[in-house]
Amino acid sequence: MSEPFKFLMLGAMYENGGNTTQRFLDGHPQLYVYPFESQPGTRHVNDALSSMFPLKYRWPSFLMEASVEQDYRAIIDEECKVRARTPNSSKFKDWPFELNDDQRLERYKAHVARLGRSRPNNMEAFFRATFEAWTNFRASGSESVYVGYSPIIVVDADKILEDLPQAHFLHVVRNPWSAYADTKKRAVPLSLSHYMLGWTLNQYYALMLRKKYPERLHIVRIEDVMADSHKALGDVLQRMRLDPAESLRRVSWNGQELKQVYPWGTIRAPTPDANLATARELSKAEADEIRARTWQYLPEFGYEKFL
């Protein structure tokens, strides 16, 4: 009989430090940290936010008439499936990763046969199967909590916490100036107005749902993680009855220390100085417009005087 499924889901608006936080958690002896963005969404998600955010980042919906295998294949999980199935097409191709996706499917099917088919059970099966199929995962033997990360998924945090009674949610927020300056570096960046709508929606859901789940939904500023990752993340883990660990002081992947977070996100150097320098790349007009569009959240997170 498996141990009860314990889960920590991370969420953050794009370029807000979700990937960075995930990489700081990597290597913690009590955590199974997903290797890439988890991207658990399916194309069957259909609600008021479906046109605002990519479906791959959402908490999934499954068709009632689908088979177990169809459920698995519906989970988008783009980064992991591309790396496993067509590694030369993956931005992570230079990182040793031994996972056969067909074998993961078989492990998934075995878990669903044991648990029963439902959204929470499908998600439990998905995360358990990943670490059973990941043959070069560097396990400590003390792991007890599975960790996923998907951008913007805080909009579904209530579904996650209701589906999985032993789950916690960690929302990461970054000052909007640095965040937008980094998103501008993408090949096809969002406009300032589009990006700030997404940023404010993320903070709205995080603050609203923290009132509903004060013991299970946690918020950290990436600025605090950058300043002292051991303290900022250790405080969250202690609320989950987990131990702080020295591994929290560095970013890593599968326990291998990284010199920069990229390609796990756009933040390369997770330091306060680099974060401020990024914000200062913006023009005065851009900085002023961002302040105007995010004004109600700046005092909440202590960002009034950041820039």
CATH topology of the domain at 7-59 and 146-301, by name, is Rossmann fold
- Main sheet overview: 5 strands, parallel
Give helix and strand order, one letter per element, not per position: EHEHHHHEHEHHEHHEEHHH
What is the count of DSSP helices, taking H or I runs of 4+ residues?
Answer: 13
Shape: globular
Content-based structural category: alpha/beta
Question: Distance between the terminal alpha carbons, to the nearest Å?
Answer: 53 Å
Q: Give the full name of the CATH homologous superfamily of the domain at 7-59 and 146-301.
A: P-loop containing nucleotide triphosphate hydrolases
Q: How many beta-strand runs? A: 7
Report the C-alpha radius of gyration, rounded. 19 Å
Level-1 CATH class name of the domain at 7-59 and 146-301: Alpha Beta
In order across it, which strands form the biggest sheet?
A: 2-3-1-4-5
| Poorly predicted residue ranges | none
What share of the residues does DSSP label as strand, in percent? 5-15%
Give the overall pLDDT as a whole number.
Answer: 96
Question: Which key terms come to mind for this protein?
Answer:
13 helices; alpha/beta; 10% strand; 5-stranded parallel β-sheet; Rossmann fold; 307 residues; two-stranded antiparallel sheet
